[in-house]
Amino acid sequence: MGTDVFSLRIDHDLLERLRGHAAKRGMSVQDYVVRTLMRDDFDQRFQAAVEETEKFYGVT
Questions:
Q1: Confidence of residue 60 (pLDDT cuts 50, 70, 90)
Q2: What is the mean pLDDT of residues 52-56?
Q3: Separation between Cα atoms, residue 45 and residue 35, nearest integer Å
Q4: Of 11, 50, 8, 58, nearest to 33 (Cα)?
Q5: How many CB atoms are closer than 10 A to CB 15?
Q6: What value does the mean pLDDT take over residues 29-42?
Q7: Percent of the chain whose pLDDT exceeds 70
Q8: Residue 18 contacts residue 9 (beta carbons within 8 Å)
Q9: Phi and psi (nearest 5°) for 38?
Q10: Which of 29, 40, 41, 45 is the most buried (most CB within 10 A)?
Q11: DSSP the chain
Q12: Taking every pair of C-alpha atoms in the chain, what is the biggest distance, in angstroms?
């Protein structure tokens, strides 16, 4: 698995909030943002899988 660069421009207040959240977890802002995105992506994929399973079994 390779890596790529992703640049993001955010305002100062949001960056300070991210720094605070990351610091509470002993993480860098970059690691905190990446883990948050990965978790959100997993949640969306998991929800889609649940919906497909329910359709298959006729639950919905």
A1: low
A2: 83
A3: 15
A4: 8
A5: 13
A6: 86
A7: 97
A8: no
A9: -65, -40
A10: 29
A11: -----------HHHHHHHHHHHHHTT--HHHHHHHHHHHHHHHHHHHHHHHHHHHHHT--
A12: 49
What is the rounded CA–CA span in Å between residue 20 and residue 59? 43
pLDDT of 47 higher than 80: yes
Q: Tokens 């948050």, residue?
A: 36
Structure tokens at 15: 């960056």
Number of Cβ within a 10 Å radius of residue 33: 17
Hey, CA dihedral for 45, 48, 53, 56, is it positive or negative? negative
- Tell me which amino acid residue 50 is: V
Structure tokens at 38: 């990965």
